[in-house]
């Protein structure tokens, strides 16, 4: 990516010795339908790539936007957290307005705040919450078809709701993780799920899961398993077996990306503030495409 000469504010600040790098954290919402996920990929449109291009235009130089974790192609977010270091002294409210003016309409920066220079989003996150939305009506509205998984066929929803909490706790989720280019590193696939619940709300089934971190395609595979349970093809004993270390093979029960939303990412409070205890705060928060 090529940029013009440094903007006037940069040259003036550099001459006076007043150029100061700022670390900014921002909340991002996006419709993931048209994108190949969060992470930059050569020749593909991604959320991270678009944000870097727009912020680079404002900065007048290349920037690196870091995210709290990756989302897969077609997955949406209401509460993705990202950060960038820039020297432009623009106030945060003005920056949000400028960024949103340049962004496509399916990506929006909801808020911007100053943060510490050593802020590492992935390492410091203590929990993430995802929601999966299943449309159950015979006909899916054309206005929501891109944001749900339409499944109008018979399901034992009571059984699904009963089994969802089985997934809570600390387990080896290897069976629910897609193969990843980091598998060769031998990293642990043990994660802690703080809460896992499924319920009916109008014409939708909603599955919400909050955990210390998630593996590649993990949430979609969990939903796929619950759907199989609803069809009568997976028992509680079989689901529990899949959570055991050494379970042979991986599930092929992945639900479509369109129904998945990243709702929120949680971080510890600033030094000097306190928050209520969150089980598993010491667990790994390494995340991949959920």
Which band does the percent of strand residues land in? Answer: 25-35%
User: What is the CA–CA distance across the termini?
Assistant: 30 Å
- Give the overall pLDDT as a whole number: 87
The number of distinct β-strands equals 10
Number of domains: 2
Report the biggest beta sheet as strand number plus sense, adding barrel if it closes. 10 strands, mixed
Helix content: 10-25%
Structural class: alpha+beta
Number of helices: 7
Question: What's the CATH H-level superfamily name of the largest domain?
Answer: Pseudouridine synthase I, catalytic domain, C-terminal subdomain
- CATH fold call of the largest domain: Alpha-Beta Plaits
Instruction: Give the SSE order as H and E letters.
Output: HEHEEHEHEEHEEEHHE
* CATH architecture heading of the largest domain: 2-Layer Sandwich
Detail the poorly predicted runs.
1-5, 11-16, 274-286
Shape: globular
CATH class of the largest domain: Alpha Beta
Rg value: 21 Å
Architecture overview:
It is globular and about 65 Å long. Strands 1, 2, 3, 4, 5, 6, 7, 8, 9 and 10 form a 10-stranded mixed beta sheet that branches. The model is unreliable at 1-5, 11-16 and 274-286 (pLDDT under 50). Helices cover 22% and strands 25% of the residues. It is built from 7 helices and 10 strands. The protein starts with 7 loop residues before the first helix and ends in a 24-residue tail after the last strand. The chain folds into 2 domains: 8-123, Alpha-Beta Plaits, CATH 3.30.70; 125-266, Pseudouridine synthase I, catalytic domain, C-terminal subdomain (Alpha-Beta Plaits, 2-Layer Sandwich), CATH 3.30.70. Helix 5 (157-163) packs across helix 6 (218-230). By secondary structure, it is α+β, with helices and mostly antiparallel strands.
């Amino acid at each position: 990516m090529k940029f013009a000469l440094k903007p006037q504010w940069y040259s003036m600040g550099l001459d006076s010795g007043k150029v100061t790098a700022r670390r900014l954290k921002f909340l991002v919402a996006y419709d993931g339908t048209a994108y190949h996920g969060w992470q930059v990929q050569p020749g593909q449109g991604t959320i991270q790539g678009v944000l870097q291009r727009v912020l680079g235009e404002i900065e007048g130089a290349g920037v690196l936007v870091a995210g709290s974790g990756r989302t897969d192609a077609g997955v949406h977010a209401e509460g993705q957290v990202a950060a960038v270091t820039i020297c432009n002294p623009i106030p945060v409210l003005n920056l949000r307005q400028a960024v949103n003016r340049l962004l496509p309409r399916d990506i929006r920066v909801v808020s911007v705040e100053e943060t510490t220079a050593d802020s590492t989003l992935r390492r410091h996150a203590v929990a993430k919450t995802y929601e999966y939305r299943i449309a159950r009506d015979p006909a899916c509205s054309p206005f929501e078809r891109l944001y749900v998984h339409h499944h109008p066929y018979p399901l034992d929803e009571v059984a699904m709701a009963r089994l969802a909490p089985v997934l809570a706790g600390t387990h080896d989720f290897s069976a629910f993780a897609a193969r990843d280019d980091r598998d060769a590193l031998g990293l642990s696939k043990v994660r802690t799920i703080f809460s896992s619940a499924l319920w009916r709300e109008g014409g939708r089934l909603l599955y919400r899961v909050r955990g210390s971190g998630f593996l590649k395609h993990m949430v979609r595979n969990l939903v796929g398993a619950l759907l199989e349970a609803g069809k009568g093809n997976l028992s509680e004993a079989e689901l529990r077996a899949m959570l055991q270390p050494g379970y042979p093979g991986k599930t092929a029960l992945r639900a479509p990306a369109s129904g998945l939303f990243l709702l929120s990412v949680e971080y510890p409070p600033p030094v000097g503030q306190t928050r209520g205890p969150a089980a598993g705060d010491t667990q790994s928060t390494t995340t991949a495409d959920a």
